[in-house]
Amino acid sequence: MFNWRKFLGYSILILIAISMLYPFLAMLNLSFVPNSEIFNQGGKLIYTPLTTHNYVSVFEKIPMWKYFFNSLFVALVTTVGQVLFCAFAGYAFARLNFKFRDGLFLIVLITMLVPPQVNIIPLFFIMRQLGWINTYQALIVPGLFGGFGIFMMRQYFLGLPKDLEESARIDGCNIFTMFCKIILPISTPVIATLAIFTFVSSWNSFMWPLIVTNTESMRTLPVGLAVFKGSFREITLWGDLLGCAVICSVPVIGVFLLGKKYFINDIMQGGVKE
After folding, report:
1. Which residues touch 135 (CB under 8 Å, ≥6 apart)?
2. Contact between 91 and 183 (Cβ < 8 Å)
3. Which residue, 26, 57, 50, is CA-closest to 249?
4. Phi and psi (nearest 5°) for 186?
């Protein structure tokens, strides 16, 4: 028997997927179209003629490899640092009993309510006092700590059965060994989720890198792309900009697909139920 509800549900999902994929596919295809022909293509999805000139032009006009390295290095170090810090802090709030634990966790929750823009000015003064302006430290260190990540890890650890830790203590494991060898391996789903969020946020960050960097060698991809757009006052090289946008999108898509695979596998095969 034909299921109208399922048909309607899948139809809506397909329409949503098409509406989200079409701009990206158009951007990808237009990045291979010469600048002079971009606005002569109408509304076609497949544009012709195709050329790689836009990508070659981008690498000739700006230090694209340097921008790419800066963004990748900052995003990777920030992601690893925040995941480790939030995992340790989240476990402490979930399992350890210490003075003012609930009060400190409340402060962590309050920081989630503060818009990031509010912290930019005081953070900038701190970076200047430390002599970190236009350095990797200024790009990385403020992103190592996040209230959302601590909250997410804490909630996940609260859901784990305490029998695992009690068995480890009986076997003679100290808290650090137990955390590294038992808790972390079974926490891959939440770690992968937090890693995806952190990497995407760091990779797409624009305001903070724009403020704390003042030389071309320290710019990240979003800042370099914005500066490149304003470099030609007479004409905007849309094809080159679209090529930059495609290059910016590739690592984020790759990280998401990789993290999605681990997330689904761990949820389906390695879940631990109390």
Report:
1. 218
2. yes
3. 26
4. -95, 5
CA 36 vs. chain centroid, Å, equals 34
Phi/psi for 113 (5° steps) reads -85, -15
Which one, of 213, 216, 192, lies nearest residue 140 by Cα? Answer: 213
The angle that helices 64-95 and 188-204 make with each other, rounded to 10 degrees, is 140
Burial class (CB in 10 A: 0-12, 13-18, 19+), 163: exposed
Query: Is 251:72 a contact under the CB 8 Å cutoff?
Result: yes
What is the rounded distance in angstroms from the CA atom of residue 274 to the CA atom of residue 236? Answer: 59
58-62, 113-117, 247-251, 264-268: range with lowest mean pLDDT? 264-268
Contacts of 97 (CB under 8 A, 6+ apart): none
Contact 78, 143 (CB under 8 A): yes
d(CA 141, CA 61) in angstroms, rounded, equals 31
Q: Which one, of 250, 255, 272, lies nearest residue 28 by Cα?
A: 250
Under 8 Å between Cβ of 28 and 50: no
Burial bucket for residue 7 (CB in 10 Å: 0-12, 13-18, 19+): exposed
* Residue 66 confidence class, pLDDT cut points 50, 70, 90: very high
Confidence of residue 269 (pLDDT cuts 50, 70, 90): very low
Measured in whole angstroms, the distance separating CA 114 from the mean position of its chain's CA atoms is: 20
Q: Report DSSP state, residue 131.
A: T
What average pLDDT score do residues 25-39 get?
Answer: 82
